[in-house]
């Protein structure tokens, strides 16, 4: 209660009728990154008690689905699922609700049960957020967006790298509504990539042609990859350096002699 007395966002949530002070974190994230827009279909993972669901509905006025192991008290215009986000049964229920095209945005403000042991709580947070990312990859539309809460620690960088593999834009952000003493930070991923490759992947390719800008053009499963400093017909091993929604860039890491490719 002593903490609540000085907590502006706690009392603001009470006055404005939101279920939790966390509502303002989503407002602030969206104000900065424009993740949710009007008409979006949104799925909130680990949604109880529903503070982010209320904000998601207000921002989008579209289809909003909340998922949690606990029952979520009814919110007007919001559908809920009681289930485990790692279960294929739950994934199928989500898809049935949002449609086969998928969700425009997946959000997750869930936190693990805290033990007070920093290392253990960080590991549990990473495990939970990894499950949220894997779920998002199954239900997001191409070019969809992702917001997830993570506890900072020694595994955070690896998690960020994993998110970067799947989105064109990735950023870590701490909204003003987060408490100063909190170890939480939010990871924002925009423009979900459905390409058959990721940054740092390696492939053996043949340069099919030279593009107007002078870069070589190769294909990985019909996906266009631009490669610098090559000639038409070259057989090379490439490493992906950047991935965009419709094409990727790569550098040569090995060149094959003609006889090696016969």
Automatic annotation (TrEMBL):
PROSITE patterns from the entry?
TRAM
InterPro entries xrefs: NA-bd_OB-fold, RNA_methyltr_RlmE, RNA_MeTrfase_FtsJ_dom, rRNA-MeTfrase_E, SAM-dependent_MTases_sf, TRAM_dom
Q: Which residues form the active site?
A: 149
Q: List the GO molecular function terms.
A: rRNA (uridine-2'-O-)-methyltransferase activity
Cellular component per GO?
A: cytoplasm
Q: Which Pfam families match?
A: FtsJ, TRAM
The entry's family comment says: Belongs to the class I-like SAM-binding methyltransferase superfamily. RNA methyltransferase RlmE family.
Q: What does this protein do?
A: Specifically methylates the uridine in position 2552 of 23S rRNA at the 2'-O position of the ribose in the fully assembled 50S ribosomal subunit.
The entry's protein name is Ribosomal RNA large subunit methyltransferase E
Q: Which organism is it from?
A: Methanococcoides methylutens
